[in-house]
């Protein structure tokens, strides 16, 4: 498919589309009362930012999974953090989770469906994760999936799929996602914006573009749930379907179709962006948390900690605006060169963590990595460097929290927020309580471990406007 290599006016891209078919969240919620529990395997922690009142696990023991299955919720998240892992480790982690989940499901008598949550800008281990999940589901006796349904849309962040082409909203208009900075990712890069072509590209031609089933806005809006259910029930032998979405109503039509297809016996595996989860869980968009709602969640401490690991240009701009708008900050840099030097790493870590803990007494404190990205020629070596730097950053958080508990913790970046949650703050179980900004920046309430009582804010590197980080901090400060 021939696509522009520049942004187009949104009105041009959206012209001539069929009218929206309105579907309320309550209609979906009523329809899914007997549907399998949706288990979202989140390859970084940011998938929770479209939902509220949903359990989150950072571990996947059978005991933890049984706890999640017992909660009154139509879905829950398992933070896998596989986007930061090598392909081999990502595969092994997915296999472990499916085995434990199947055991927990049998013990609790609660059926499940799996959504592999990937990045809305198409980065991550695809098709590896859905391939491995399909193999493991077959192995444990849950049955081989009839189809893999790809739904990368993220409505609030402006990641939209139209006529099977994935776009991202920019200040200049809608840009084909294959032309974005995210498509140039050192580990997960790609060139295609049309999803059937992207599937062919990422599968190395194993799944040709012309074999990918396209569920378009016409199917969703004109055909409706029954028509789309027919398309889904026709999937066989793990065929891939790609789905358009421009708004929540489109995704709720899909949710109704999925419920009908699953009721008819279709076994489906999902690879999705964040917005799918909200629709499939029967939730509507929630307004951001208010200062009054945040006040009882804040820890009993004067100031909070902001942890910045993401290196995308948007994060750097947000950090610059944070300094300009909220100037009374303490800021400390973990120097990547020193972190990669085994002889200097620990002393540098200790120096920064000690200084940051002391600063929390008098100011909201930023701890960040060097803004210059360090990569290698080999994608796996680049990923190893990222893991090493992230490990140092979260070790600094662990030391800071052990010395002085902050009022809150904001973690900026996907890998950063995952590692900070699991290793820096040792969170095992939490609840996603809502967002600080519309549809983005999720707040977790940890229910165990050293972070219990400290609100944890998951802030992806690639979302929000230039002022979003400053706005999030201003809201948290207003709850003091």
Q: Notable features of this structure?
A:
Rossmann fold; 16 helices; globular; alpha/beta; 480 residues; Molybdenum Cofactor Biosythetic Enzyme, Chain A; 3-stranded antiparallel β-sheet
Task: Present the secondary structure layout.
Blueprint: H1 10-14, H2 25-31, E1 37-42, E2 54-57, H3 62-70, E3 75-79, H4 87-108, E4 112-117, H5 128-140, E5 147-151, E6 159-162, E7 165-170, E8 173-176, H6 195-202, E9 213-215, H7 217-233, E10 239-243, H8 248-263, E11 268-272, H9 274-280, H10 291-294, E12 305-308, H11 313-325, E13 329-334, H12 336-339, H13 345-359, E14 364-369, H14 379-403, E15 409-412, H15 414-424, E16 429-437, E17 440-446, E18 456-459, H16 468-478
Helix pairs in contact: 2-8, 3-4, 4-5, 7-8, 8-9, 11-16, 13-14, 14-15
Q: Could you give a short account of the major beta sheet?
A: 15 strands, mixed
**Name given to the CATH homologous superfamily of the largest domain:** Putative sugar-binding, N-terminal domain
Q: Tell me the fraction of residues in β-strands, as a range.
A: 15-25%
Task: Label the overall shape.
Answer: globular
Radius of gyration: 22 Å
Could you say how many structural domains there are in total? 2
Structural class: alpha/beta
| Total number of helices | 16
CATH topology of the largest domain: Rossmann fold
Helix content: 25-40%
Give the quaternary arrangement of the chains. Answer: single chain
Low-confidence runs of at least 5 consecutive residues: none
Total strands: the figure is 18
CATH architecture of the largest domain: 3-Layer(aba) Sandwich
Rounded to the nearest angstrom, the distance between the terminal CA atoms is 53 Å
CATH class of the largest domain: Alpha Beta
| Sheet with the most strands: spatial strand order | 9-10-5-11-4-1-3-2-16-17-18-15-12-14-13
Give the overall pLDDT as a whole number: 93
């Amino acid at each position: 498919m021939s696509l522009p290599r520049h942004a187009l006016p949104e009105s041009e891209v959206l012209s001539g589309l069929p009218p929206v078919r309105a579907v309320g969240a309550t209609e979906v919620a009523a329809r899914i009362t007997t549907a399998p529990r949706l288990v979202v395997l989140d390859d970084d922690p940011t998938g929770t930012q479209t939902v509220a009142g949903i359990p989150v696990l950072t571990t996947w023991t059978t005991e933890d999974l049984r706890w999640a299955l017992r909660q009154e919720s139509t879905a829950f998240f398992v933070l896998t953090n596989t986007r930061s892992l090598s392909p081999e480790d990502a595969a092994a982690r997915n296999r472990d989770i499916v085995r434990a989940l199947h055991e927990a499901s049998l013990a609790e008598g609660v059926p499940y469906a799996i959504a592999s949550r990937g990045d809305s800008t198409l980065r991550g281990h695809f098709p590896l994760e859905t391939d491995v999940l399909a193999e493991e589901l077959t192995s444990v006796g849950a049955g081989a999936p009839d189809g893999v349904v790809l739904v990368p849309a993220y409505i609030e962040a402006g990641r939209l799929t139209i006529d099977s082409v994935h776009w991202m909203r920019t200040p200049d208009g809608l840009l084909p996602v294959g032309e974005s900075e995210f498509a140039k990712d050192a580990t997960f890069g790609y060139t295609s914006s049309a999803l059937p072509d992207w599937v062919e590209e990422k599968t190395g031609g194993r799944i040709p573009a012309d074999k990918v089933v396209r569920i378009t806005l016409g199917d969703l809006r004109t055909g409706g749930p029954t028509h789309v259910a027919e398309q889904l029930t026709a999937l066989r032998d793990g065929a891939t379907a790609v789905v358009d979405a421009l708004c929540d109503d489109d995704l709720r039509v899909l949710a109704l179709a999925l419920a009908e297809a699953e009721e008819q016996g279709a076994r489906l595996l999902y690879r999705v962006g964040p917005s799918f989860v909200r629709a499939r869980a029967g939730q509507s968009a929630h307004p951001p948390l208010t200062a009054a709602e945040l006040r009882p969640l804040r820890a009993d401490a004067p100031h909070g900690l902001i942890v910045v690991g993401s290196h995308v240009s948007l994060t750097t701009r947000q950090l610059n605006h944070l300094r300009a708008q909220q100037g009374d900050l303490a800021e400390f840099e973990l120097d990547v060169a020193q972190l990669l030097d085994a002889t200097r790493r620990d002393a540098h870590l200790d120096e920064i963590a000690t200084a940051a803990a002391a600063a929390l007494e008098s100011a909201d404190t930023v701890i960040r990595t060097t803004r210059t990205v360090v990569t290698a020629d080999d994608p796996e070596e680049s990923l190893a460097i990222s893991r090493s730097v992230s490990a140092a950053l979260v070790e600094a958080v662990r030391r800071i929290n052990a010395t002085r508990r902050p009022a809150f913790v904001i973690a900026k970046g996907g890998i950063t927020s995952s590692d900070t949650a699991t290793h820096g703050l040792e969170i095992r179980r939490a609840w996603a309580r809502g967002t600080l900004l519309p549809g983005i920046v999720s707040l977790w309430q940890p229910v165990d471990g050293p972070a219990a009582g400290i609100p944890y804010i998951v802030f992806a590197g690639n979302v929000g406007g230039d002022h979003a980080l400053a706005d999030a901090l201003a809201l948290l400060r207003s709850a003091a």
